[in-house]
# Entry
Amino acid sequence: MSAILEPLSSVCLLLGSFLLLTGALGFLRFADFYARLHACGVTETLATALIILGLMLQATDSALPQFKLLLILLFVLFSSPTASHALAKAAWNAGVRPRDRRGRRDIALPPGDR
Amino acid sequence: MDVLSYFNYWAVVVLMMLGFFIVIARANLVKKLIGLNIFQTSVFILYISAGKVIGGSAPILSDDVTLYSNPLPHVLILTAIVVGIATTSVGLALVIRIHAAYGSVNQNDILKQDQQC
Amino acid sequence: MLSHIALLPVLLPLIGAPACAILRRPVFAWGFASSVAALAFLSAAILLKLTFEHGVIHYSLGGWAAPWGIEYRVDLLNALVLLLVSGIATTVLVASRTSVWHDIAENRRGLFYVACLLCLAGMLGIAATGDAFNLFVFLEISSLSTYALVACGRDRRALLAAFNYLVMGTIGATFILIGIGFVYMLTGTLNMTDLAQRLPGLGESRTVFAAYAFIVVGVCLKLALFPLHLWLPGAYTHAPAIVTAFLAATSTKVALYVLIRFSFSVFHLESSRLALSLEAVFITLGIVAVFAGSLVAIFADNLKRGLAWSSIAQVGYMTIGIGIGTAAGLQASLIHLFNHALMKGTLFLALAAIAIQVGGNEFSKLRGIGRRMPWSCAAFTVAGISLIGIPGTAGFVSKWYLVTAALAGEQWFLVLLIVAGSLLTAVYIWRFVEIAWLDSAPEKATGGDGEAPSVLLAATLMLALANIYFGFDTRLQVSASGGAAAALLGEAAQ
Amino acid sequence: MELLVNIVLLILLVATAGALVVVRGLLASTMLTSVYGLLCASFFVTMDAVDVAFTEAAVGAGVSPLLLLLTVAAIGRGEPRPVGALPVLAIVLVPVTAALLIIGTLDMPPFGSPDAPAHTHVAPRYLQLSGEEIGIPNVVTSVLASYRAFDTLGEVLVIFTAGVAVLLILATPGQRGSARPRYVPDNHRDPHTILQIVSRILIPFILLFALYVQFHGEYGPGGGFQAGVIFASAIILYGLLYGLPTVCRVVRPAVVEWLSAVGVLIFGITGVFAMLSGRPFLDYSVFADDPVTAQHIGILVVELGVGITVASVITVIYYAFANQFETAES
# Structure
């Protein structure tokens, strides 16, 4: 039993950590606010899910911690995308517009918007 | 090992001094409160470090644990955290009123305005 | 109920404050707060009587024995401070109505009295507890409510004064917390008696030294001892008149109590090697405080600000008493603590009355005020004479004991300096007397005229009379402070 | 391994504090404060202080950044300024204090040693006897709500004082301390539809979690204070998304103000009960014949008082701050 679960759990944890790392890298290196938000917002949801899954596979001997981890997972699945959405919306309303690396506008803007 | 056994305390000293520096050196009143917050939190870290026993576990009684960390500093710091947030909220309330009265939250500007009148 | 007497002075305002918050009408809040303070005063009086008769009274909160639970340990010193603080609070709160109605907006008055009760509960809690951490908690209750009370001042400068007080007060409290943390790490206990027994066993530990240093600096910030006094003039000048009267008469006194309690009961200042240098520090800072405070007070153009600086000077006298380091010096310090509360209570209450009539305390507004408000100004003058230390007033008793203690310690220069300090006091009190009584009133009287409202006037006169009474009948403060000083040094000698 | 995590967290804390020294903008400072609080909470977990970590996460990473944000919203972010004169006072005072602190640490018992006086004098009794005397597994709750319950009463009074002080400072003329609800998010131009729907799903669960934390505090980390903060956070979330008038209609300011006093009174009167039967203040043994049951009842009631006061005071403070925000706007 644990011979299968142990490596599976390790793989989940490692993969999750790797995703977090790529997210952080993107956050540091990408050109503008939206790209950076995209980098960490997208990776974070999956990474957290993988890490929690890995932890659930670790604690197979009792149901309570697994149940709690499941609740945390559900909460993260709700809150993390919502937070990204709120950030992007706030940035747009504050007048932040997508730019490329050289600071040029990256997308066509709606009429009347500078 | 000797350095490691005092590492926590010295980290506390560094944090405390950074907070203290912000309180004294920054003219912005909100910044001062943030510095005060760091200053207080560093003391919490001191207390909690003092309560740790290496190899111990959280002080929640259980049959298969023999060594616990010290619960008393935890209780004290719970109280101190509440004191900290209470101070912060009163300070921020004062900042809002000061901004309404002077139009600025910079200590130097405010003192200048007071001298003029 | 008598078995709970040690707790009652603290418990009454502590439960009274939230109860007061439920009352909706400000008049009820005023009546309720005053009666709670009066009951606390009554129980403090009984407590003092009991400590005279039976010595130390212990009270274990929650039924858990010290050092595991929190203990109230009330000896003569605690009882004296409790009596003083609750007595001043009662007088000021009863007298406060007109002044508060004048200074505070209608929708804030109820909350104002809640904050007053919280402040009172905090100070009484500091004075009664025998547990170092509990002291910190109650210190914060009193400090937080004080910041809000100071910010209630009419002038916008009150806000900045309150903010500065908040920052410095929090630094002070955090320093005290660091000190308590250090001694906790060394001894494992927070109970003051237990600490006092365990600290000597540690020998000359550098951590104990640092702990004491942090606590002293923290307490001196609250005490406004000379270089750490920066928050005081602004806070006292711009706070509502009633708040200044209350704070000036109580908060520095409680801080001084904490300094004495930690120095002598917990750390055994005089039996340690550090004693000599620290005593020199206290005396030097005390002298500088006396002269700096008095000089600024002489040149202030606002009487309230002048008296605030005078408070800094008077704190100097008290620390000189501690610095002398003998039982007589300590006793002098405690007597001055008691008497100074009476003087500053009277002075600031009289100023509150004047502020209602003329709308401020600037000297320019006070010309000829003695003719218009003879009784308030008479009370002010009596307290001023007491502040100088002329025989027949309580202030003379303080100075007398201080000079005697200095002479017994063969510190002749101190005597000279104390007398010189009194002369400086005479200068700024004379300035008031001259303007109030000898100047003719301005042609066009500013503001309303006539005497202060009767309740306020009665309270002011009562405190002024107390200044004279305790100048003749010195039994209460002398015997209580003598017993307390002996106990403090006796404990340490064991 | 534990030690390594400890060291890394402390270094991160120092880095965050250093960033706070350098950063000038208030919004960035607020975010860094939140990061600092979260790091602190993680550090407390590695130090076995789970209750403290819970509280610090709620307060340091939650409430205090929220209050900072509301303040920044009311006063504006403030433009970065050029560095002024050299802060002489700071350069003198900071090293002196640091030196004193370092001197203080020299004779301290080494970190984590089980023989340190703090672990051998008073605390062992709590660990050894609280199982029999109080009968609940979480020793921190035992000490907090029974052995040192008076400190906790003081703590509740501190938070109550904060509520009174904030109302006293921020009360606008013409009303009795209560918030006058004005803030409405601009829903026509920019509807918060997604946020509102998600929050509508989450809020019941947040409230449920608050209740769990309130009543589970005897067995695991948690208790009245943490539960109060979580409860208040649900109300605040609702207020942020639906506007102050809506939330004030659901949770009336006057009621919240009243409740903040009631919580303290519940705690205080629990203590007075014992006095009426001739026992010391806050002695719970009067509540039942069996001492352990009596302690249970006492702790439950007292924690309830803490929870009510904390939840209502934080809501009161939020109302007062959010109201200022709109006053500054208009």
